[in-house]
Amino acid sequence: MSKRQLLLLSSSNYHGHEYLQFAKDWITDFLNKNNVKKVLFIPFASTKPNSFDEYTAKVAAPFNQFGFDVEGIHKFPDPVEAVNNAQAIFIGGGNTFLLLKSLYDKRLIDPIRSRVENGMPYIGSSAGTNVSTVSINTTNDMPICLPPTFYALQLIGFNINPHYLDPIEGDKHRGETRAERINEFHHINSTNVLGLREGSALLVDDDKATLIGFTSARLFRQNQEPEEFSPNSDMSFLLS
């Protein structure tokens, strides 16, 4: 049986680094381990008109430097066929609602899920990480459009909150903190939520999950106090 292979980044950017450069070793090791030479990029989270070529070129620049070719799915007449023939997929950041709606509109949910379940490597960043989870209910994005459902690819059995932010001591803002919003989610949902700070990622290899990167993560569980996990922590219990 093929092993599930996921690299789920909180963000494509990290302070002090150029685009995706902080994750160079993670991406390179992940793709080389899976014998990947070419990556299919899905740019549908972009909200800029006619920007898919530009977004794909932005992604291709670091990937080419790392030694991998990149193709944009929008260049294929049949996106389902493109997914079915892909060596690996990368879905980048942008608006999560628009991304999920596009995946449903183009009938890509089931093909992507099937390919990943059969061992195709998947890299997500920000919105691309959001749609890899159970649902997009814990995204930070504005709902600029309405997908058919908030249920997502369900490649893992919990949610992730990318770009997780801690309250800033002394801040005069009186809106809800990120933790308070996740707590609101848990008033009526039991799905675990991993608050993934920028500079970190979750690496999934079959039934093993590891927190990697430069920052810790915070796990929220219904009716429990949040728990902090440091880099290199074994998070495999979340997959069960």
UniProtKB/TrEMBL annotation:
**Coiled coil region boundaries:** none
Q: Which CDD domains match?
A: GAT1_Peptidase_E
Q: Which GO terms describe its molecular function?
A: dipeptidase activity; serine-type peptidase activity
Enzyme class of the recorded protein, top EC level: hydrolase
The record's SUPFAM superfamilies line, in alphabetical order, gives:
Class I glutamine amidotransferase-like (SSF52317)
- Location within or outside the cell: Cytoplasm
Q: Does the keyword tRNA-binding apply?
A: no
Instruction: Give the reactions, separated by semicolons, that this protein catalyses.
Output: Dipeptidase E catalyzes the hydrolysis of dipeptides Asp-|-Xaa. It does not act on peptides with N-terminal Glu, Asn or Gln, nor does it cleave isoaspartyl peptides
InterPro entries named among the record's database cross-references: Class_I_gatase-like, Peptidase_S51
E.C. number, please?
Answer: 3.4.13.21
Q: Identify the keywords attached in UniProt to this record, alphabetized.
A: Cytoplasm, Dipeptidase, Hydrolase, Protease, Serine protease
Per the entry, what this protein does is: Hydrolyzes dipeptides containing N-terminal aspartate residues.
Instruction: Tell me the protein family, please.
Output: Belongs to the peptidase S51 family.
Q: What is this protein called?
A: dipeptidase E
Protein species of origin: Polypedilum vanderplanki
